[in-house]
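Input set for joint prediction.
Command: fold jointly, output tokens.
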Amino acid sequence: MTTDAELVARCRDGDPDAWRELVERYARYVYAITQAFRLGDADADDVFQETFARAYERLDTLRDDDAFRPWLASLTRRLCIDRLRAGSREQPIEDPDLELAAEDTLDQLTQAFDVHAALAELPENCREILDRFFARDESYKTIADALDLPSGTIASRISRCLARLRDRLGEENTTEARLEG
Amino acid sequence: MTPHHEERLAELLRMLPPAPRGWLEAAQELPLARPGLDRIVARAEADARFRELLISDLESAFAQEGVEVGEATVDAVRRRLSLP
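tokens >
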């Protein structure tokens, strides 16, 4: 998989495809952050667009190209907080602990991003079935129809693919430990 | 990353649902189209007839300025400009 640093460098050279790939890679992450701050649809859409627009404009200010994700998370978080403090376009936010709770969620979203990155390395049949069932919340029947599979096999396929994902993450941990050791 | 139990993996997978397709497409296109969009806004500020065209037919205004954008971007710009 192309690294963030490579994509960022290509964006700076004016490669539009690199930018599209970067947005595709981070769209769920940025979207999830806006949802953690419980922004309504219109506000979340504004923050989502503004985050990517500013990121594109300010790529030259990114000091470490490998740190694109924390940089983008920080940008999104700041824009969410600004939006909450400026007053929602839809309705006022009443929960005073919301910002604190959202900060906790951000840590988990980073883990979720790593899991989705590992998912992207699995064979397409596993990627598709796990993404449809867990992230898209599709039923067994919908998945079976979409993938042209017998409905009765979906649960076992999910279980097998989840085990492969776990193994994949285990392999990554071992590699990381070797590199660090 | 620490080893994961499958239940925790499922929970983490659920935390990142896809962003609405239109949002994603606009985010892919808007920054690339921004120079053209800035030109359109500047022209609308200086030219009343062009401003009317922009309000009544955004797609034609883009085409007239040679800015190629998709439907998602047109929708996003319409929302930004608070156009009907």
